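U., I forgot to send this yesterday:
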Amino acid sequence: MKDIIIKGGEVVTPFTRSKADILISKGIIQAIGRNLDEKGKKVINAAGKLVLPGTIDAHTHMALPMKGTTSSDSFWTGTRAAACGGVTTIIDFTEMADGKVLLKAFRERKKMAQGQCAIDWALHSCLRGWVKGSDAAIDRLIKEGVTSFKMFTVYGERGLMSGDGEIFEALQATARRGAMVTVHSENAGLVDAYTKRKLAIKDTSPLALAESRPNVCEGEAVQRMISLAEAAGGRLYIVHMSTKEALRALKEGQRRGVNVVGETCPQYLLLDRDSLEGRKGHRFTCVPPLRDPIDKLVLWQGVEEGDIAVIGTDHCPFFGKQKDKHAKNFTKIPLGLPGVETLMPLTYTYGVRRGHISVNQMVQVLSANPAMVFGMYPQKGILQPGSDADIVIFDPEKKVTLRAKKLNMNTDYSPYEGLKLVGYPEMTFLRGKLIVNKGKYVGDKGDGKYIKREVAG
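Result:
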């Protein structure tokens, strides 16, 4: 591969932005500076553009079985779409398993993704409960580069839920090894009680989904998980935070010195429960559900102030017909929204241009922070010599109206349909290889490689 110089763009890191050239050789950033030697190199003019590290979406669900169907993006279609949106690494999930079969679940999921991905990828391991052998399984997975283990406080009926004692055991065991536990946090008893009330009056509308999982369900569970992490001395990551109550608990825990990181998603920053009341409200169903407008404002404040460290998508797309089949019964609708392709441009338009965050903060929450939290830094998440040349040339003035038919995700609708964006990725490089040019994918299936992640030092 010929050496490349990206010339004259504004290079953005978590803390700086300056006009500079970037020299890429053998997939690695070799130098950043002014007037680098261009002889014998391919020169790409980035004048007037932002030069950003590739986004790391730490929360995706490709080909996820759910409620009798499967999310519509495969590893191939989903990562190809991600690349078009400036994402150069995803972290997906294994199937749910206990300690007896945890390694088997990882190997099966890895085999499914191997050779299919357009960008680099890693896996979280989904851990159900705590049984004899869980310690040994975690040790083996850490050697395979898996350093995060997802657990649920809900979905007992689907065999996903872990009890507080089991989560406490996992927090202690992972902390001893420098790994972490990520938790989907909702109070199962409250969710069950509210859901029974809705079913008793035969209200199964999309809005009833939100009413069956009010803010208190998430707020209480997040507070409880932080208390468990505090007692265990564990490393905790709260996925897809959606409420002001969850943010309050996060901030209180961080002030006490608990090692807890918060994540939110574009749907909770940009959408609200009004979307659930329309004729196609069922297509906006996800869990946690969409909230009130005040929650959006408070979450943006959490991102701005650094309390929420990561924005991921929880990308879990379906075709309209998959959602439509049970449109009037929220207990049967497959839950999830598409979003991996639109993460960066939405964050730029509605975060940076609206004044919630700076472009440096955008790089933090989309690239540097997820790389650091999940053991990929400084290989990923930063533009500096020695790091992978995962680079996005971003046009800050390009105007785009989001239309599902023009996006690359394997779905026929977008929850952000019609939103007007200013700023969009123009080129995406994966380890120095140009894989997206002028919005068109030009890479190859299998360009992406599995990333073995490191535990905390």
